[in-house]
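Revision sheet: structure tokens.
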Amino acid sequence: MARPRGRQISVTQQAVRLKTQFPDETAPTVKANRLLWSVTLQPTPMSVSYTVRIRYEHRGRPKVTVMDPELETRPGQGLPHVYPGDELCLYYGDDFVGTQHFIADLIVPWISEWLYFYETWMTTGFWLGSEAPHPPGTAKL
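Predicted:
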């Protein structure tokens, strides 16, 4: 596989940016080119606070799960816009490339937006966020 050219954002640089942007949160853990971080997000002033875990491996897709509170579903429906293991589906294709984009600048705001859409879906039954097609078995819509 060819190595991408140009400036590459390292896992350590991702961690520094997260700590800089979220100084009140615990610093991310970086080990063996992997990042693990938990953050508390509240999408709106009327929302509950969610504890979210982000796992990121250099050149991989950030894997985001809500740890607390446990996400509920509507009667007879599964959780929308998640990958297996209830990892949040936040973007389509190459909208985020970890060697070019910062998690703090794109992924964290997208998590808050997903949580807002989740809360709206719980109330109305409609997912108000944009939708992208997924290969069968890779994400639930």
